[in-house]
Amino acid sequence: MRTIIFRCLILVLVTGGLDAARAGDGGSAYSLLGIGDLRYWPNARSAGMGFTGIALPAQNTLNASAPATWARIGQTRLEAGALYEGFNTSDGISSRYLARVDFNGATLSLPIAPSRGIVVAAGLVPYSRINFDTYNAATYTGPTDTLSYSIHYKGSGGISRAFLGTSWAPASTLSFGFSFNYLFGSRDQSRELVPHTSGFTGNIEEESNSVSGVTYTLGALFTGSPSLGSVLRPLSLGFFVTSRGRLNTRNQTIYTFGPSLSATELDTTSLPTGDLVVPFTYGVGMAYQVSDRYVLAADYVAEPWQSSEFNGAHFQGVRDGYRIGIGAERLALRELGAPWREHLSLRLGAYYHSTYIQVGGVGIVEYGITGGITLPLYTDPRFGSESSLTLALEYAHRAPASGSLIKDSIWRCTASFVIGELWFVRSEED
Q: What is the pTM of this model?
């Protein structure tokens, strides 16, 4: 708890003057709080539609957050993605742009019995990311002397989610899904005090915290029934809930002090039996098929992080968060003779994210607009093979709900490559 409070105080100090502080290597200074930047990335299609998709049954993409949507996947599909993320960080006086490229997950879906909606899926996707490199200058005045110094804060790592699950459709209008999620990763952070006067000695505090544990996700999807009438027939409703998880943690802190900070170790502390409790998460969504080619969608996802714990104490510096997104899509035509531009899927969206981070009681919010496109790359009807490239572009703004803390203008570009083939199909004998 003291460490989390200390980080909150650090962030307040750092945001006091960006000309003396710099967030480094493409990351946001806000990622030093909690377990870093939470990643909500169902798939690249969702990213282009304001991160919606809980109620969107899909044949060509896999929504890693909502397993009930897998039931209509008719091909074996392998999908892998990357994320470019650039931050323009400003305190209103000066600013700096930093960027990075991250692996954004890979998934595999296997339709075992498509007529029953039985699809087995597995994947590895990001859960949170930590990446900051920040300096801050300060002065300590004592009764007999004054010390000017700089503090260098660095952090890296994050948590990943490996999942394995399945879907099932007992009826053409209803499907269910379940996934087993294994969370694992590390949070590595350091703080180095560098005196400006040679007569004083600095120190380094390095903290490493590895975590691992299990959560479970359940989902359901209802697509419009003919009995509902022409107005409600195109409506789909979906939800998912992910269980609360208790992650085992292993913490180690190394304190280094001496003339040669790289060679003198003062003390090492370790706590092999800690835990991190992540809260349950739930989401609800709706989608409306306006016509054969146009779809509207809206999602709400809740993140009640005030119930989280770290090593038996309330997780300081976090609050309950939520995300609201809306999106629209123009689907591609499947006819081979159609113009090339008609084979493109186009998307637009927007979202508002009340993040789980708060500094000094002030919540941090993020809102953005998104757009996306899917480009067909290869199709072979003889073998049911096809591949495509999906791109999503996002511009977002992250800032405190009130006050004068750091503001981030964020560019994100998601690229996802999909390969699909027909498996488990009995060939006709000659």
A: 0.84
